[in-house]
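yo

u said u wanted the structure for the complex thing, so here. seqs first:
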Amino acid sequence: MTDPSQVPPLPQSGRRSPGLLYGAQRVFAMSIGQMLWSRRTVFMGLVVGLPVLVALILRLLVEAGIPLMARGRTPVAGPMIFGFMMWGFFVRFSIPVLAIFYGTSLMADEVEDKTLTYLFTRPIPRGAVLLGKYLAYAACTISVVLPAVTLVWLLVVPIGASLGASFPDLLKDLTLLVLGLLVYGGVFALAGTLLKRPLIFGLLFVFGWEMLVMALPGYFKRLTVAYYLQGLVPHAIPGDSALDIMQALFHEVPSLTESLLGLGVIAIVSIAIAVRTVSRREYVLEQ
Amino acid sequence: MTGPVLAARDLSKWYGQVIGLNNVSVEVPPGITGLLGPNGAGKSTFMKLITGQLRPSKGSVQVLGEPIWGNPSLYFRIGFCPEQDAFYERMTGLEWVTALLRLNGHDERQARAAAHRALGMVDLLDVAGKRIGAYSKGMRQRVKLAQALAHDPELLILDEPLSGMDPIGRRRTIRMIRDWARQGRSVLVSSHILHEIESMTSNILLINNGRILAEGNVHQIRDLIDEHPHTVYIRAADPRRLAREFLAHLDVISLRFQPGAVVVETGTPDAFYARLTELVAAGECGAVEELTSPDDNLQAVFKYLVKN
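structre next:
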């Protein structure tokens, strides 16, 4: 081994803690690779790959000369199918599910792997660990979901319509998905720092609470993420189930401003509380 | 620094009804100090409190003159090598140490250079580009040590740093820790093996049942431990050949085989470790992959100590 006296000392770049944002940036750089190569990425591939597969099948059917008909035997145009897939597959399923599985595990993975010690004994605020990992989650999911949606758009929209005309809607859809990932991710990151079983909470929140209160009149729907996302959907929200009929009866869509404000408040408050919780919690007890 | 590197006052930590550490007041002087105690003695709780991973339930702890809990700036001056064998397995040793150094605020070039330096200090430069997942137990211990000392801290806190290392790695690491302290820096090292601590320092803290039992010179404890047989578990390529050598040359009380390993009970641990290191260095008995000592030895001594 090298004698420590023979090696030049490391230049010290100051003794002040680098701060929350710098720390988050470094944790982000460290975590992004880990996240992309984790087993969850396979799961994410399946979740976003399914709609791409469905889009491909639909396109092949059309190319084979089989027309796509609605119940009234009227032909269905590509943008309508895309709108249905966006709401049904991505907004109401893929985005919350990805946020649940990634968001709730931001700190849990480090605790389970017992690697949190290395991050918590470095001169960065503890909250930077959560913030950095949250940013890595966002980058990781956005980089997979957006190309998948674009692929679905390229496959489906040309069925009886032109790509050019629906391009502005695609941009709105992509923005909606990014916001959905950020906001749901923030909510479930908070759940991951506060609760013992955040995964169960996440599933109940999305597939229980949100579905229920969205179908009922009243103010409770303002306590969901889906309500605010609804205000950003550029298409008519499809659906013909009994639940959808009820939803249509009590349909309330927030304005664009209310939606953006609501989503912004939920995301910022959730992340701020999560950062504060991580700073105070003794995670080592759980290792 | 002339004052204590670590000062605990009435320090207690309890987990619900369980007391992890009980009213500990202690000052650790500069230099190397060994924290010795069997498993469950409170060593890990103490280590976690002094590295700011746990908040004291009662009392206070100051490291290098500052409170550690909620004080991230202090980690510029402290290097911590935890006990657990946990890593980002897909990263290479160099990537991992560099990434951790970047958390200290160093730019990529500085961090990479410092990581190289640290990996050189623990003899891992030749495997720096290899994934940590492919490292042997000894290499994993050493890369953990590298990340602790890479930022050139004033105080190195090492939790069971020699656990699982092969005899040569163990000897080199002990030498490196001693050289490190000779540069005017301090080291607090925990172990449940007196022999290990003794090879680094004579200044020890004895901990058991969440209390500091004694602090100071190691020799009295040494006499006690010599009365008890010392058990060593050796996982090796050819355990039978090693066993033959031990029986021929050493004061071996008992010897038993386990799959791929031999467990030896000796009355002369010093002579045993010295001979084992010689055998491994000479390559006479093949590679030794892992060397551990269960803490039964120390537990017996502590029982004796507490009784008397």
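Residues 5 and 304 of chain B are 31 Å apart (CA to CA). The longest helix of chain B spans residues 167-182.
cya
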